[in-house]
């Protein structure tokens, strides 16, 4: 994921999610599980979808993400689970 981020965004870091539009109605979302923590995969997928729709980081995007997360019973962050 570091190489993809560097090549497409110009940053030498590992991104947790990247979105690439392929056409008006399709795109690709890449999620790096190791960089995703503490975010839930569901949240990162929704985040990527909003980027495919053209939204940028900000208050509007956050409100829309929260609305969808609530609608599907998802959380932004993984829940800590004790596995004793």
Structure explained in plain terms:
By secondary structure, the protein is α+β, with helices and mostly antiparallel strands. It has a single domain (about 1-70), classed as Metalloproteases ("zincins"), catalytic domain (Collagenase (Catalytic Domain), 3-Layer(aba) Sandwich), CATH 3.40.390.30. It is globular, with a radius of gyration of 14 Å. The mean pLDDT is about 90. The protein has four helices and two strands; from the N terminus they run αββααα.
Proper CATH architecture: 3-Layer(aba) Sandwich
Q: Helix amount, in percent?
A: 40-55%
Main sheet properties: 2 strands, antiparallel
Radius of gyration: 14 Å
CATH domain topology: Collagenase (Catalytic Domain)
Q: Oligomeric status of the shown chains?
A: single chain
Distance between the termini: 33 Å
Strand order of the largest sheet: 1-2
Name the shape in a single word: globular
Specify the CATH homologous superfamily. Answer: Metalloproteases ("zincins"), catalytic domain
What order do the SSEs take from the amino end to the carboxyl end, as H and E? HEEHHH
Q: Estimate the mean pLDDT confidence.
A: 92
The total count of helices amounts to: 4
What structural class do helix, strand and pairing data support? alpha+beta
- How many individual β-strands? 2
Are there runs of 5+ residues with pLDDT below 50, and where?
A: none
Number of spatially distinct domains: 1
CATH secondary-structure class: Alpha Beta
- Beta-strand fraction estimate: 5-15%
